[in-house]
């Protein structure tokens, strides 16, 4: 929610600021020692803070109180992590119970979100387990040496190893639960589609080659040379362009016939006009004589 996002940056910032402050205080108070992996909390020699007869080189009587403050800080972090993880599991479970009474489209949507919420809860649990495994051993090792003055070499060797592998384990958890496999091809290119025969094969549609179609086509009984598919595609009946050799002579003869017909018609019309004029003249002469 927006309320949680307001405080989230401060939580992440405190993870880095508080250890930095502890390190600066340890450097100023001369608490830094090479005895353990937590060098800024280590008196040297080991156990000098519990025995007054042992003179210390690094760390004085105040290192005990300082180490307790740091340990309290780590315990608070663990308790905070446990509280957050538990709240996530309870909130997911409560939401699933509320969605049991839904019907229709709302139930379908919430069921789709159910898998995502469960995956988020699983991721939270794995992160919490990684946190406990990586920090519990260092905290126990430091608690033993600072409170009881006992030094366990095996635990102090294992402590920095566990802290170092936390990032690797978190990476595997993230890869396993969230990252999906992306296509290996170029995202800018168009996806390669199968042939039409493969895409329509589910509809039980069979495709035949051109040779099979020619064999199954009925033969025409009309004599004469038939135009091939190539000749038909080259001929345009609308304007006569791209005419083949078969049609060129036909077009030429028809154009000549059309050109001759208008000349014969004009001569006949002229003869008819002459006869009409002669008839008119004869009628006029007869009227004059009478």
From TrEMBL:
Could you tell me what this protein is called?
G-protein coupled receptors family 2 profile 2 domain-containing protein
State the organism of origin: Proboscia inermis
Q: Which residues cross the membrane?
A: 66-90, 126-147, 153-173
Q: Which GO terms describe its biological process?
A: adenylate cyclase-activating G protein-coupled receptor signaling pathway
Gene3D superfamilies named in the record: Rhodopsin 7-helix transmembrane proteins
Q: Which SUPFAM superfamilies match?
A: Family A G protein-coupled receptor-like
The source's superkingdom equals: Eukaryota
Report the GO terms under cellular component.
Answer: plasma membrane
